[in-house]
From TrEMBL:
It comes from Candidatus Enterococcus dunnyi. It comes from the Bacteria. The keyword Cytoplasm does not apply. The lineage of its organism: Bacteria, Bacillati, Bacillota, Bacilli, Lactobacillales. Residues 384-613 form the Histidine kinase domain. Pfam families: HATPase_c, HisKA. This is histidine kinase. Residues 338-373 form a coiled coil.
Length: 615
């Protein structure tokens, strides 16, 4: 005993130490994993930043190339006659503007001194190009500080970015030369950078919250998913709008980006698309790119915590689990302590307890035997009573139907007779189900003609369902034989047709039930053989379909209809055993059962069974 106690104590101490060490390494591992994950996330963002930068550069080259193709058009030599140029190049201009997807709505021509000669305006809704007043494009010239550099040395693809009313623009340049290779002027295309961002970068996807943004050398936002942020200095202008926020990390970010060509870092900032920005920890990567005369920093920011949520949650759950284990060890220690106190008493009374257990076991066996005998007696008595009750109900049903026909002109009496008939039929159905499930004799299965057995069962039920139900029977003869009990088929048909009748009796249209028996197609047979090993060697099958024109079975209860005692009817209309009996019979013979139902389209019960072909 002392040796056992010592072993238990050592196990408790070892388990406690193990849990404490595990908690320590879990916390340490969390720190390592978090650093590794952050570094991995920053590497991914840096690669994404390089990709975005290349996309921007390539897209800008494509737009300049499109402007170059437009300039090749010979009609531009008529620079003094924009109406003639527009007339001859209407289709070309329309295609050009339409290809830009709303990124530009103006195109103008200036002479070598920078004086505007003519301008065109693009209406994206009407898809038309018109001649515009040169005064309307004057802001594009006045705010473009790179234009003078172009006139002095015409080598640039495009200008640096500039702002008009807090909207960012970029001018594309294309020189036009005369026949003697002298510069006649410049074709200039102002590009709306926010529209460009929406077309190419707005849908840039990360697995967590984040987005790309572009700033110029003055740390002014050029492109951003929040249009209100465009034209703002990332620190100075934001301080004017949100004076209560902390910008210390943004100042460090600004300084770091201005002194490095690319990099990655973690800093505190805000999501500017929120009504009230809340401080968050971000991971970021950036790279400076040149697009013509524009020098931009492309940055992608992502939510640090959201990226590490899975790791944080895992470590928290692991720590909680270890703490719970530690508590369990403590509880277990207390339990051992109490157990030892009782152990001495239990040892002294061991023999007495064993004797009491033997007596208790013997008594339990006697009770079980008594209960089994009692249940067998109750089962036999129940079967006898239900059988007699069924014999009583048969003449009641028959005579009530005769009375209904005889007194059809008396609505009051007819209603009472219908109540009697309904109750008697429910009682007969209940007694049939009880008899079915309480049979003690061994089942006797025979090879029976499927067509004949289903035909007999269908015509039997036809005699007892209401006359207003339109029951159509289509049974192909000589389909073959199958091994089953005929009473099972009758019970199957009875419950399915009764269920179909009950589903249709409340509707305004004539209740219709269709019973069809025909050979199963090869395609269907091969499909059901895949899921049933027992019938994989069978070659011939017969399909029984029972279809009604009722309201259908709702999809939310379709899986429950075969459960025992499940019913959607009132207490005096259904017991919930009918379809359970159907499912039990199908399972007994390992037949195939399927239910096809659509709301307001009726329901079809489909049963497929293997048969021997007729000789």
């Amino acid at each position: 005993m002392k040796r056992t106690n010592k072993i238990v104590n050592l196990m408790i101490i070892a388990m406690t130490l193990f849990i404490i060490v595990s908690v320590f390494f879990a916390i340490r591992g969390f720190s390592v994993i978090r650093k590794t994950t952050t570094a991995s996330g920053q590497d991914f963002l840096l690669q994404s930043t390089e990709y975005v930068g290349k996309v921007i550069q390539l897209s800008m080259k494509n737009r300049h190339q499109a402007l170059n193709y437009l300039a090749i058009d010979g009609n531009l030599k008529n620079s003094d006659d924009p109406a003639a140029y527009l007339k001859n190049s209407q289709s070309t201009l329309t295609t050009f503007f339409d290809s830009l997807n709303g990124e530009a709505d103006a195109l103008f021509y200036i002479d070598p001194n920078g004086t505007p000669i003519y301008a065109f305006h693009w209406d994206s809704e009407k898809k038309t190009v018109t001649i515009a007043d040169t005064q309307t494009i004057q802001p594009y010239i006045n705010h473009d500080l790179s234009l003078r550099q172009l006139l002095d040395k015409p080598t640039a693809q495009n200008s640096a970015s500039y702002f008009i009313d807090k909207k960012a623009y970029l001018n594309f340049y294309q020189e036009i030369k005369t026949a003697d290779d002298k510069i006649d002027g410049y074709l200039i295309l102002p590009l709306h950078l926010q529209t460009f961002y929406q077309n190419f970068l707005q849908d840039f996807e990360l697995d967590y919250k984040g987005y790309p943004m572009i700033k110029d050398q003055s740390m002014t936002v050029v492109m951003h998913p929040v249009a209100e942020q465009v034209g703002l200095d990332i620190v100075t202008d934001r301080e004017k709008i949100y004076p209560d926020l902390d910008y210390s990390d943004l100042k460090k970010l600004e300084k770091y980006q201005l002194s490095h060509s690319s990099g990655k870092l973690t800093y505190k900032s805000y999501w500017w698309d929120e009504d009230v920005p809340k401080e968050v920890l971000k991971i970021s990567a950036f790279e400076w790119i040149d697009v013509g005369l524009a020098h931009w920093v492309v940055a992608i920011n992502a939510d640090y915590n959201e990226r590490n949520d899975d790791i944080i949650n895992f470590v928290i759950m692991l720590s909680l689990l270890l703490v719970v284990l530690l508590l369990l060890v403590g509880i277990f220690s207390l339990f051992i302590h109490n157990f030892r106190k009782k152990e001495r008493i239990e040892e002294e009374n061991k023999q007495l307890i064993e004797k009491q257990q033997q007596q208790k076991l013997q008594h339990q066996l006697e009770l079980e035997l008594y209960q089994r005998n009692k249940m067998e007696t109750v089962g036999l008595l129940t079967t006898s009573i239900v059988h007699d009750m069924n014999n009583f109900l048969t003449p009641i049903i028959g005579n009530t139907q005769l009375l209904l026909e005889e007194y059809s002109d008396d609505p009051v009496l007819e209603e009472d007779l219908e109540d009697i008939l309904h109750s008697a039929q429910k009682g007969q159905q209940l007694s049939a189900n009880v008899l079915r499930f309480s049979k003690t004799q061994q089942s006797v299965q025979e090879w029976l003609d499927v067509s004949a057995a289903i035909g007999v069962a269908t015509h039997l039920i036809k005699e007892i369902i209401p006359k207003n139900v339109q029951l159509s029977i289509s049974i192909q003869e000589n389909l073959g034989t199958a091994k089953f009990e005929e009473i099972d088929v009758q019970n199957l048909i009875y419950n399915l047709i009764t269920n179909a009748y009950q589903a249709t009796k409340e509707q305004s249209t004539i209740p219709k039930i269709q019973v069809t028996v025909a050979p199963t197609s090869k395609e269907v047979a091969e499909e059901i053989k895949k899921d049933n090993i027992r019938i994989q060697s069978e070659e011939h099958f017969v399909t029984l379909e029972i279809t009604d024109n009722g309201p259908g079975i709702p999809s939310d209860i379709r899986e429950k209809i075969f459960e025992p005692f499940f019913t959607t009817k009132s207490a005096d209309e259904g017991t919930g055993l009918g379809l359970f009996a159907v499912a039990s019979i199908i399972a007994k013979y390992e037949w195939y059962l399927d239910v096809q139902s659509e709301t307001n389209q009726g329901t079809t019960f489909l049963i497929i069974l293997p048969v021997r072909p007729p000789q």
